[in-house]
Design goal:
With 348 residues, the chain is an alpha+beta fold. It is built from eight helices and 21 strands. It is globular, with a radius of gyration of 21 Å.
Length: 348
Amino acid sequence: MLIRENVPISELTTMRLGGKARFVIEISELSDIPEAYKFAAEKKLPTFVLGGGANTIGKDEGFDGVILLNRLKGIEVISETSDEVVIRAMGGEEWDDFVKYTCERGYSGIECLSKIPGTVGAAPVQNIGAYGQDISQVLESVEVYDRETHELIVLGANELKMGYRSTIFNNGPLVGRYFIVAATFVLENEECLEPPFYNSLQKYIDEHNETDFSPANIRKMVSNIRAEKLPDPIHEASAGSFFKNIFIDDGEGAKAKALGIKVWEKADGRKMINSGYLIEGAGLKGARMHGFKVSEKAALILINESAKSYADLDAARSEIRNKVQEKYGFYLEQEPVEIPIGKKKEAS
Ligand SMILES: Cc1cc2nc3c(=O)[nH]c(=O)nc-3n(C[C@H](O)[C@H](O)[C@H](O)COP(=O)(O)OP(=O)(O)OC[C@H]3O[C@@H](n4cnc5c(N)ncnc54)[C@H](O)[C@@H]3O)c2cc1C
């Protein structure tokens, strides 16, 4: 079990903000998990689990606690028939390595989720989604370490309350209770997705006269679209979409339509507004503020160009929120999670 001290959170997260974490422990074996929680308990310090840090933001004060970095590796096909394959991946696997593995073998179900940064273990936390797929459609179960009972247990996907960017892991009384060790998915074997596809993917397909909808080729197309539109965390600091899209009721739908905002109807009948559209409509696409830039290609993405401080992020976030609120009357909810600063610092 590798323990490091005073590690900058900015180096562990793709938004590249945040002061030092008192301790960082790399979890590379199952037995490291109880040991790491014991270490934190002995030192009376809080804990925070981190994967790739692609959806997490650190504060300037850092974290007076113990960060557990999930580095558990392994992918295993549990069973395979001509129709479906049950496949398990350890939580510290890179999500995109896992998607690549499945697409290369012709398994369908997560090909549209290609190139999403981060780990397998974090994917269920906010029910990652893109281009018409999200993992609630294929997740069978997760194995978790319960830090209250100190047991490894299996939670079925039906127990996770999976919704748009929301599950029991990031919403409600169980937040912080489980360390996700592994996830098991049921994918289709030798099947291809069928048109019509999600808008931007369909547009790409039409423009490039694509007719091969195999997982490998959908992965190639999604990767091309993303490379064109989204920042690569290696070269540009961001946490992906900074705000969530907004689900609305019929009354708000009527209000949105009156303001000329496009209202999307999801497959489950719920109505949704694209927050990127509101940011663009408020004249902020490509705008620079407090060391950040609203991406000129995808207005939902806030790129950290030169900011070093959480206060800069706070100022940029307020500016965007206020302009959108003034123009449209809708409140933008932040998507990335924030690491608390830890007990001692809160008390001081
Ligand atoms: C450029 C870019 C593009 C993105 N595109 C998308 C997209 O298309 N769709 C999408 O849904 N998201 C997208 N994201 C967000 C991000 O990639 C996902 O949320 C991803 O799942 C984060 O993985 P991570 O390992 O980096 O999570 P982290 O940021 O490390 O953690 C995220 C949250 O999960 C918790 N967590 C992490 N690992 C575990 C674990 N093992 N057990 C329990 N809790 C855990 C953390 O405590 C934290 O609350 C994008 C981000 C970036 C930077």
